[in-house]
Every structure is written in C-alpha cells, then in structure tokens.
Model the fold of this input.
Amino acid sequence: MRTPQDYCDGAGPLNAIQAAAPMTRCEQLPPPWRILGAALIALVISGCGESEPARSATPIAPSVELDTGRPVRGVRPADLVRFQALPAYSEPDWVTRNFVAKGRLPPVQERLPREPLVFGSAAMPDGQGVYGDVLRQITGGRPEGWNYSAGQSQGWGGVDIGTMECLTRTGPLFLVDREALEPLPNLAKAWTWSRDGLQLTMDLVEGAKWSDGHPFTSDDVMFYWLDNVLDPNVSPLNGASDDSFGPGTKLEALGRYKIRWTFKRPFPRDYLYQMAYGKFCPGPAHVLRPQHPRYNRANSYQDYKQAFPASRMNFPTMGAWVVTEYRPDDILILRRNPYFWKVDASGRQLPYLDEMQYRLLGWNDRDVQVIAGGSDLANLESPASFVEAMRGAAKPGAGYRVAFGPRTSAYSVLMNLSGNGWGEPDTRGQALRNLNRQQAFRQAITMAMDRKSLGQTQVGGPFIKPYAGGLLASSPFYDAQATRMFDHNPSAARALLSSIGLVDRDGDGYVNYPPDVLKGENVTAILTASPDTITERTLAEGVLLFARDAGLRVVLRFASGPQRDALVASGQFDWVLARHDTTELTTVVQGADALAPMGPYTHKFHRAGPNGDLDLLPYESEMVRLTKAFIATDNKAKRRQLMSRYQLVSTEQVNAVGLIQFPGGLLINKRIANVPPGTPTIMFNWEEYALMRERLFVPKARQSRHELRPGTLPGCFACRPSAGRGKP
Ligand code: BQZ
Done:
C-alpha cells in the first residue's frame, strides 16, 4: 500500500500522468519546512552584515574580483568579427613540428578558407592570446550521440555549443551597439536582401573544411534543410522545423558557396536570429547522408538518429574542438580542430586553448567544482550557491573569481493553456486545464505566491527581484508602467477562487470543484519540476506551500533533463516550473515567435490538440497580433509601443506566473583570460556561446599541467582505428 508521502500531498494516487512518469519520490526530499529552514539559516548567515552584493559597484571584499579586463561594450559588429584574407597564418609550433613537417597535415594556409573569420582585437578584453593549456568544464548532461541534426544532444552544458557552428551567431551580441544590432556572420559570411525583401542571398565561408578535412559547402546546408528540418520524420536538436523559418519558406543552393532563401513576407529579419545556435547548425552531409533512409533504404529513421553513438570518436565538426575521447559517466576530452576556420587579427589559427575537458557529473557540481579548483568555468545560475561562491572567491589566494552579468535569469510557473486535448489529459487533467484557461484562476495563483520569500529562501541581499511574468526587467523593451505585478495576498486569492466556484466544501483546507465536476473532488494541480538543482527543488516546494495557503492543492512531480523536456514538449503537464532558458523575454528580437502561440505546434505551453485546432484565448490572439506587428516593423518607437502593450496584456492576464528574476554569474578560474566583463549567463544565448571560447587563453606564466592529451590532434572518423592521425 503506497503511503500518502509517495504523492507529496498526503491525498493518495492521482492519475495516469503521475503513474506514467517516474517521479522522484518525495520521501527522498526533506519536508518543505526543513528546506526552507535550511535556506533561512543560510540567508541569516549570508545576509546579515555582508556588504551589498555585486550591484553596489564596490567589491564585496577587497580580493573578490567582480570584473576584470577592459569593459567591452557598444562594439560595432565588424570590430568583433569580419572575413578577410590575411598576409600570413600560424598555428601552435607542435602542430607544425609534429604534423605539418611530417606530412601528416597540410600547411595551415591550405587548411584555412580563402577569407577566414577574423576576430577583432578591439573586442578582446585581454587582447590577443597565446596558445596552450585546457579549459575544464562540467556538465550534468550525458552525450546521447553525435547526430545533432536528428535530435541527439552531446551533453548540453556547452558541449553542443562547442562543436556545432551555425549560419549566423548571436551569443556575443550583448557586446554590440544596440543601434547596430544584427546577428553576426558565421558560416554565412555575408548576405543581401532583394529589393522587395522576399529573397535573402547568403554567401557561405569559402574553402572552409570539416575537422576531417572534407570541404564545407552548400551541400551541407541543403542536406540539413531538406533532409532534416523539412523531413517530418526527423526532429533536429533545439527544435528547428519549417515553422521556425516561416511556413512556405524555400531555400536553394545557387552554387558551392551561395544559397538563397525565399520568404512569404518581406524582410523577415527575425529569421536571421533563428539561423544561429540552436536552429540552423548543419551537420557533415558526407557522413550523415549515407545513413539517412532517403539515401539508404536499409536504414530506418531510428537507425539514422542512432548511427553515430557517443562511443565513436572524432565525429567531424566545424567547431573549435573535436571529441576525441569519451569515458561514460566520467569524461569527454576534446582536442583542437586542425581545420578550424577562424583566426585572430595576427593570423593565428584559433582556438588558443588546445584542449577542452567535460567531466560528466551533476548540474549542481558545476559551480562546486570551480570553487574546489577542479573546473575552470561555470554558470552561476543557482542563487542558492551565490553566497558560498563569493565567500570562496573572497578567500586570500582563491583560484577563481565571480563575474556577475545582467539580471537575465528567472523562474516562472507555466500553465498548460490547451483545452483541446494536447498531451491527452485524463478527466482530472482536463478539468485543471479548463481552470488554467480562466483569468481569475491564473490571477489567484499569482496572488498566492510570496515572491519575496521565494527569493529570500534562495539568497539574501539585492540579488533576487520579484518577477511578474512577461518581459524581464533587463529587457531593452521592458516597460515598468505596463507591468502588472499582483502582490502576495492569499485571502484575495481565495476570494478569486470562490468567485469561480472553487471553495473548500469538505473542510480539508483545499478548495473543491463544483459537485458536477469530478464529483466535487479537491482541485489538484501537478507541478512538474527538475530535481537537478537546489534552486528548482526549493522553488517547487515554495510554490506548493504558498498555493496551499490559498487553499489550492499542488502535487510535485520531479523529472530531470530530457525526461522533463519530453513531458513538456508532448503537453503532458498541468504546470511546469520553468527556468528562463530562452531569449524572447529578454532580447525580444531573438526568438520573437516564442512570445505567443504563433503556430499550432510552436509554443511551449499552448499547442494544438489531436485535431490540429489551436484554441487560443482572446488575450492570446491579441498577443499573437502584437508579436506579428512587432516582427513586421523596424520602427523603434512602434516596436516599443507594441511591447508595452504586450507586457500589459501578458501580466494583466497572467500568461505565466512569474516568480523570481536575478543576475546570473560566471565562476572563472583566474588562469582564464579574455572573458568579457558582464557576460550574461543567458541573453542572446547561453554564456558558453556568448563567451566565444575559441578566444579564451591562458597567459604563458599561468599555464597549467591539466591537459590530458597534450600534443595530440583528433584522429580521423571514417578510417580504420590504426590509421589515426592523433598521436604525434
Ligand atoms: C547551459 C546549457 C548550454 C536545454 C540545457 C539543458 C537541457 C535543455 C538547456 C545551461 C544546459 C545548462 O541547459 O543547464 O546552464 O549550460 O545547457 O546548452 O537544461 O536539458 O533541454 O534547453 O539549454
């Protein structure tokens, strides 16, 4: 007989969803009051007497370097990257000596494109770098395989971002002058719009090669588009679909290094942002196509997806590093790509760092390991770790520093707004969604939340601000006047619930459905959350507690990483605790089509049901109209006005229950140079993309002996193991 504790609310089994999805059983988690207690103690310890954190320009303690290096802001795109032939090129001496001189590798100028991508020194906080050393990182993910085009992750945490290159690049745009804001050239080195704006012709980098020396051409782009994005049997990682670039959009190759888009609406500049990481990052067609069912009848689409297991090394990439070694649940070793097509302004082929290591641990280990000296770089995105991280950095001789970025991190509760059967809800689930679709219910939930306490349970001080939902305060389009914040008011929340017929009829403290709905049982919402970080666990517990104060029964279902992603993507959720890991609510210009349910299958928490109809609520239709108008105009004032209206509608209607917003940070080993001050943990993309890790370097005097495979290069992928080029 299962104990009430099994279901975290003492009321016993609920439904298929709970039965279906293996959830973390609550008795593994200390009861909510114990976590809150612990956090409160941490708060007291951390909060009192400490000087104000990073916001207050003065360092927390003399030795805590909040930001080092020349502040780089308002950069013009061409100062950051440009394509140019340089008089001479160079590479690490050991590559010349052990590989080129021995005829095992063509000379560097033959490995580089006619005009490589050149990183401008002006935008390098510590100037041009030197070769050598390693970047050690941690990921809580695990590589599924190397077929990104067919949806396999390489372990997240920046692994994918380190190996995949895309048509344009947006991560570093936080450095770019807002007046000159446009995605940076990358595999597409230049583009021109037709006069009517319906066609966009792109020139690809000419003469660039995959890490196995095979030429990169428009064939790789067209294979990705035609046989992956447009193939209904294939779902690339990060969700590229024909919707991502506009229904009816065409792409054709005009030559080996020229492609042309044809769109249905003029000047869809927002699609240039979609052509960056994660939606348009082509894979090596010369390796993938032979496994694709359209070209290999013996293969199913599952065979194609799994044709490149994580155990196969040296999978060809266009990225700065190639995975050369993998020990499951232990480590991924990546070595410099000898064919990498980017250089510094002196013609030195990048990356500067010869090796990248990813230890395969838990997500919570990322910041812990930098503090312990076992890793060199981590997102500090768990507020519960802020105080410990700063304390450690303040210690004399600390090996790392803390660098806070803008307030672009946040958490919300997303409510499934589909009343149309998306995710095949049972009767309980359907009844709850019908409530999610009522404004009074959503407003009651947001009023029940005590955001101040939710923040304080994470960390004291000025880090965390209440988040109303909608655009984040750090967004250039944020309008405080248009932001409706519902203050914490449990009794007003109860009044709103009773105004829609939800009152506690059986005196157990929880409101019930009217007698004709689910025989008047308690209203129950299942909150899906990730157990991966302390922040997510304590926030989920907090939501449960504050909802209960307003008489609403919440049941927690913990599901981590890919499981949670699959549940959400298939609509199998009532509510989900969402970490803000996309770009539209900060940048707006990137991923704007995620601001509202623009298509039947595009939105995170409102999609079409089995019959294909998308049952939009009136306010959602207005949000769609406002977003379309925003995308269709370049007029800055008009855009600001549209987003103010969007903000008012989304916060007044409580499109999502915002909880907290806070600055993410970076923990950086002091060896590592060229980290732009104020790098956001997430803005136009994750920091791993924003940082341009190929430009990071370690000054000679600080170089370590942490490299595991010094003097080696990636072997070849398709040839017999013994023929490897790896070893010197
Ligand atoms: C950052 C990011 C880099 C995906 C992933 C992971 C997947 C989701 C999300 C984040 C991880 C880290 O986020 O948490 O800090 O390093 O990798 O790619 O959560 O499970 O599907 O959307 O970006």
Remarks:
- DSSP finds 21 helices and 22 strands in the chain.
